């Protein structure tokens, strides 16, 4: 179906989905704060399952973009921020561990769904492979609808968007940091398989498994680095210290990517990038509690942060593809430079987070 389209065109499907997953949080966050969680959850669940079923009928590029890029991206975006925002309602202690376990679901999905599709495709065909993923999503989302019960805030915000948030200089630097960080953070994910194919060998299976490797590293980063915050706070480090560390690691790894020339070094890069990028993507939800202390706008403020990150994903994708399928230097430089700019903004934000956290003790 997509054989006549370039790798760049095909990658835009995943890029649009990833970006919308984050950008839609700008709308999903305020809806959660105003008490519409179940309306959002049920609508998004139906839409996501529908996207898989319609994907099974796709015959052209624009069909796939519509189903998997746009519809699936919007629906996952409606689910993402509310899933995070409900955790502080139940966990005042061990918040990092709880958050990491919830966010690890994204990494597990990044492993299970591609692997399931790859294994089913030769035996049952494209249509039923997509439908099988749809039925899996249906079962998992049905469990969520039954089990998830967010608390209703006694005084929901009257405004959909609270402009006073932007008067906080540390919150503004947080937004800029998320944007720059995600300009670079997703590029190695987009280029993982293509880099292997161009630099090492043309084995499809080996290239495919690079995606699973980086998502496996992401899984441990999301769980490990968020769980550490439950203990790091006691040692005066806090989530802000770990997010700066993760950002610094991404800067170093981004530039080290330029010199990778062996299988072993590339495997190590994928694991480490997955680990630290997982922390950089997950820790903002913890640090947010020290930047925006108002509980009634937590989801709204978090949605704006991830919305800026989604715009960054859209900016980074064309850069990742600017060198074609053989020249990766523009993507590698962009990864390192964008991560550095994100780290600088992260340091400014960390100063404010630490000051507020110490004052609250």
Helix and strand arrangement:
Layout: H1 7-23, H2 25-33, H3 37-55, H4 61-85, H5 87-90, H6 95-147, H7 169-185, H8 187-199, H9 204-232, H10 238-256, H11 263-282, H12 284-291, H13 298-321, H14 329-360
Helix pairs in contact: 1-4, 1-13, 2-4, 2-13, 3-4, 3-6, 4-13, 6-9, 7-13, 7-14, 8-9, 8-13, 9-11, 10-11, 10-14, 12-13, 12-14, 13-14
Structural overview:
80% of the residues lie in helices and 0% in strands. By secondary structure, it is mostly helical. It has helices spanning 7-23, 25-33, 37-55, 61-85, 87-90, 95-147, 169-185, 187-199, 204-232, 238-256, 263-282, 284-291, 298-321, 329-360. Helix 2 (25-33) packs antiparallel against helix 13 (298-321). The protein has one domain (7-360): Growth Hormone, Chain: A. It is globular and about 60 Å long.
Short description:
With 361 residues, the protein is mainly α. It is 80% helix and 0% strand. It contains 14 helices and no strands.
Largest sheet, described in full? none
Helix content: over 70%
Level-2 CATH architecture: Up-down Bundle
Radius of gyration: 20 Å
Shape: globular
Q: CATH superfamily membership, which one?
A: MFS general substrate transporter like domains
The total number of structural domains is 1
CATH fold-level label: Growth Hormone, Chain: A
The fraction of residues assigned to DSSP E strands is under 5%
